[in-house]
Structure formats: C-alpha cells, structure tokens
Amino acid sequence: MNADNSKGQKIFSGGFFNDLMIKIRLTIKLVQDSRIDMLVKAIPILCLIYLVVPVDLLIGPFDDAVVLYFGMDFFISLCPRDIVDEYLLEIRGNAEPQKPEDIIDADFKEKE
C-alpha cells in the first residue's frame, strides 16, 4: 500500500521490505516526537501489546503481522504530513535544502 504526500508523490515505493523498514524507522521517530498527540501515539503501542498478548484472531503469526503493518499505516496517516515528510527526508538521507522565501531587498521612498 503506497501512500501519497501532499504533493501527490509516492512516500513508499521501494519494494515491500524497503517500505517496511522505512515504516518501522518512521514509526519509531514519530512516537519519539513531542509534536505528535499522545492519543495518536497509542496506536503503535496498542499494536505492540497485541503482539505479545497470547490471544490471536488467527492461528500463527499472520494476524500479528497484519495488525502491525496496518497499525503503522494508520498511525502514519494520522500524523501531521509536514512532520512525516521531515522524517522521511531524514531517513532517506536526501534532505532537500530549504528554499529561501522570495524577499525583495529595496529602499523605500515615500511620494511627496
């Protein structure tokens, strides 16, 4: 499942295992970020609790993997897009330089 950012670009598009590693690293960074709401941070924590609870919906690890994968997707989708984009650039190691705003440097003269 590939998500789009606000510019319509693909966030995850490097193959399943590469996307999974990016999502795991992104989830960890977002959980550690103080700008993310505590209720939103509860989603990945609840997914981890489900992982260690001995009650399963299905036999085997399949349901655990599904809960973790879609829990990370849901958590990332609820986080502010600018924070997610910031961490994605950091994780990928290709941080774009911030573009300076359009500033016009000129002297001001009043009409008489």
Short structural summary:
With 112 residues, this protein is mainly alpha-helical.
Could you characterize the architecture of this molecule?
By secondary structure, this protein is mainly alpha-helical. The chain has a domain at 38-94. 54% of the residues lie in helices and 0% in strands. The protein is built from four helices and no strands. It has helices spanning 16-32, 38-52, 62-78, 81-92. Helix 1 (16-32) packs across helix 3 (62-78) and helix 1 packs across helix 4 (81-92). The radius of gyration is 20 Å and the shape is elongated. The protein starts with 15 loop residues before the first helix and ends in a 20-residue tail after the last helix. The mean pLDDT is 80.
Per DSSP, the total helix count is 4
* Order of SSEs: HHHH
Broad structural category:
mainly alpha
Q: Uncertain runs with pLDDT below 50, 5 residues or more?
A: none
> How many distinct beta strands?
0
Any idea what the radius of gyration is? Answer: 20 Å
The gross shape turns out to be elongated
Give the biggest beta sheet: none
Mean pLDDT, all residues: 80
What amount of the residues lies in strands? under 5%
Helix content: 40-55%
Q: Could you give the distance between the termini?
A: 64 Å
